DNA sequence: TTTACTTCGTTCATATTACGAACTAAATGG
DNA sequence: CCATTTAGTTCGTAATATGAACGAAGTAAA
């Protein structure tokens, strides 16, 4: 029981994880079935299921009759084994939610975003505590909190960088405060990355091991999933394609704001339309309406933005070669944008990368946060570092 | 002994792999030292080392005296446990080599490249057989062959695609012929990817878990290493940045040849110089000499190529966020190109990605092939699929 | 209703693997 | 020459997984 991987409890870990997986994935299932599918012997499975049951991770569901042979007792993941909280700090509001370990979202609330950093932290704290109270969840049953932020997250230092829309979030204070107040593990994650994980879990990414998710809204960002794993980059900067150089001129202003973002985003649509017409910038829905009505300038702007977006996708495709690109965000999810991007990609690439519309819309972020939280919980309680399946009170 | 991960031999596999690693990494080492470092008990280590010795993977080196305490018997990787062959099919010649499992290159030869596809295959076969014979290596001791090819390799189908300079290599016939004739496992791999693995193993990549390697020669290509693993892409197309769109015009010809390759490569230097001067294209060394002598046109061409290259690197940096970029290839490894690329990157990026000159030069490909071959051998003989460390005769 | 059959799940004897403690071996160093 | 130190082995014990046998609890059919 000393060495890192030395004792035979390693096998127990692996097999326990395996049995847990079968129960989670294949819903109510009998021990005999798990044994058949996993190749483990029946008693080993029985032992492991007993252990999982004692720790509260699985529970008996019922019995299966009607088939030939003895009645089978079936087991499933115990949703009450624990809970996770998720938050998504957007441009104008905060979305909050609690989910159980089966991934079921129990409740969701939206709060208008406060102006100041410390107020935002308080909003998160109170919001989550309210949700826990209303759903009768004890604090020690809260296993993980995941917060989506509009910025680059350094996972090692647990700090937020490059958060132009909400500079108050920068640094590591938010994570620390939430962790200490809620007495649970806290993960901060870039909002586009969360939406990407969401699409992977419940959206178009399910069929694909490697894909990119491009979110075009006010700004533009990307999530990169390679072999089923989100790639965050050496400094958490992966997918920040707003800074991708696509112009031929090198403009110091562009370097600041992000080269691609200045030509492929909601912001770009407004500026370009204003510049071309000489009129002060109108609203985005207005430009879209004008384009649909056949306005030449609006159509030209749409096309130019689609081209820049396609260029970024094509460039990315040569670097990481994904199976597919999922296009999302408030602009990117519009069908007229999707077709234009596809058209331009066809002109740029010999074998154009398939581009699909996203599936989850605005909920992708929260779903992704739940998925990430469950991943974290899973790797925490079923990794070789811990005693098998034992629920420890998560704290610093 | 039935289930996939079911029997306790799994632990044996893991611990055997662990002990093997310590012996390989820490040179001549005693069993007591391995026990201390790994956390395994002394007898477990003794058992495993005995097993490894019986299978021929390790051997006794000698004894350590002079220190306090009993003499220690030290062990090391047995270089004669097996051999790998490597080949690099270049533009004008084939490089061949054989190495032992310790990674030591025993002999290297160069052969002028034959004109026709089947002739190339024969050259490989005869060349490798000659090398084996000269170095007294029995065919059943040849555990792996790795061949570097100038094209995109589909690992699932074991086929070569997009090989414009050597179209005869396309398809899966080469792998099949080599495997059946040499009766060993064969891996084909893109030459830039091999150079990347080479830099990772023995070059600048050693200090970095995630980096990109840009090879600018006649054409331009890139290798992507993320968290220590070469990323090949869904179809083996990752890093084919020759096709990256960087121009503002969409030219069907450019789509064919590759947009970036037409502005950032040896080929581009020649064409641009010829266009600007109106003279027929000169040779590359000539253009470099002119630039050094202060010729304005030559300097302009250099700068323009460096800018395009920097743009591709900056674009890649926003997508994968590597720690560093290693610049190589016959053009890229020139210091005057390196500084220019660094200069341009400074203008394009807020926190410019560090760019370093490559370390291994033209041998990177062969080194990478050896590293890849050893990886393949390692995962073959020490993976849970096989009986621990048992040498099986590799065949179809 | 009884009997045969099928499948679920447990009990039991056995094999593998790892560990720690005790022991032997072989050197150094005064 | 003997204490000390380190290397390596022997041996008893504990954990884990297995397969075979067995008991349990249903269906199917005579």
Portion in beta strands of chain A: 15-25%
Q: Of all protein chain pairs, which has the greatest interface, and how many residues does each chain bring to it? A: A-B, 61 and 59 residues
Q: What's the average pLDDT of chain A?
A: 88
Helical percent range of chain A?
40-55%
Q: Give the helix/strand class of chain A.
A: alpha/beta
Total strand segments of chain A = 15
- CATH C-level class of the largest domain in chain A is Alpha Beta
Write the CATH homologous superfamily of the largest domain in chain A: ATPase, nucleotide binding domain
- The shape of chain A is globular
- The string of secondary-structure elements of chain A, in order, is HEHHEEEEEHEEEHEHEEEHHHHEHHEH
At CATH level 2, the architecture of the largest domain in chain A is: 2-Layer Sandwich
Explain the overall architecture.
Two copies of one chain form a homodimer. Chain A is of the alpha/beta class and 396 residues long. Chain A has three domains: 10-80, Orthogonal Bundle (Arc Repressor Mutant, subunit A), CATH 1.10.10; 82-195 and 363-390, ATPase, nucleotide binding domain (Nucleotidyltransferase, domain 5, 2-Layer Sandwich), CATH 3.30.420.40; 206-358, 2-Layer Sandwich (Nucleotidyltransferase, domain 5), CATH 3.30.420. Helices cover 42% and strands 21% of the residues of chain A. The first copy, chain A, is built from 13 helices and 15 strands. In chain A, strands 6-5-4-7-10 form a five-stranded mixed sheet, sandwiched between helices. In chain A, strands 13-12-11-14-15 form a five-stranded mixed sheet, with helices on both faces. A three-stranded antiparallel sheet of chain A has the order 1-3-2. In chain A, helix 2 packs across helix 3 (42-54) and helix 8 runs antiparallel to helix 10. Chain A is globular. The model of chain A is unreliable at 1-8 and 391-396 (pLDDT under 50). Chain B binds a DNA duplex (30 and 30 nucleotides) through residues 1-3, 6-9, 11-12, 15, 30-32, 35, 40-44, 46-47, 65-73.
């Amino acid at each position: 029981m000393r060495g890192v991987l030395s004792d035979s409890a390693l096998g127990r870990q692996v097999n326990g994880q395996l049995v847990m997986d079968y129960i989670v994935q294949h819903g109510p299932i009998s021990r005999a079935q798990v044994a058949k599918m996993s190749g483990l012997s029946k008693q080993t499975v029985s032992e492991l299921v007993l252990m999982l049951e004692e720790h509260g991770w699985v529970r008996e569901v019922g019995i299966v009759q009607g088939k030939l042979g003895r009645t089978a007792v079936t087991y499933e993941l115990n949703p009450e084994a624990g809970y996770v909280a998720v938050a998504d700090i957007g441009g104008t509001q905060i979305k909050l939610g609690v989910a159980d370990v089966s991934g079921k979202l129990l409740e969701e609330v939206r709060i208008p975003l406060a102006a100041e950093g410390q107020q935002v932290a308080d909003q998160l704290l109170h919001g989550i505590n309210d949700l826990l109270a209303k759903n009768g969840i004890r604090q020690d049953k809260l296993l993980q909190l995941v917060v989506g932020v509009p910025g680059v997250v350094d996972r090692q230092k647990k700090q937020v960088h490059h958060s132009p829309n909400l500079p108050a979030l920068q640094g590591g204070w938010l994570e620390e405060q939430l962790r200490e107040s809620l007495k649970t593990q806290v993960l901060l994650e870039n909002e586009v990355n969360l939406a990407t994980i969401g699409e992977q879990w419940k959206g178009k990414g399910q069929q694909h091991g490697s894909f990119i998710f491009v979110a075009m809204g006010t700004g533009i960002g990307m999530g990169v999933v390679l072999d089923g794993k989100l790639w965050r980059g050496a400094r958490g900067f992966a997918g920040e394609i707003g800074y991708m150089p696509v112009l031929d001129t090198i403009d110091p202003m562009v370097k600041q704001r992000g080269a691609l973002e200045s030509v492929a985003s909601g912001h770009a649509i407004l500026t370009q339309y204003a510049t071309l017409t000489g009129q002060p910038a109108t609203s985005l829905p207005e430009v879209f309406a004008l384009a649909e009505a056949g306005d030449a300038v609006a159509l030209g702007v749409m096309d130019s933005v689609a081209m820049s977006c396609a260029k970024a996708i094509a460039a990315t495709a040569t670097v990481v070669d994904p199976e597919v690109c999922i296009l999302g965000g408030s602009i990117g999810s519009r069908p007229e944008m999707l077709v234009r991007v596809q058209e331009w990609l066809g002109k740029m690439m010999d074998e154009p990368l398939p581009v699909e519309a996203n599936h989850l819309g605005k909920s992708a972020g929260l779903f992704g946060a739940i998925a990430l939280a469950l991943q974290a919980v899973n790797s925490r309680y079923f990794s070789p570092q811990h005693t098998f399946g034992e629920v420890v009170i998560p704290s610093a």
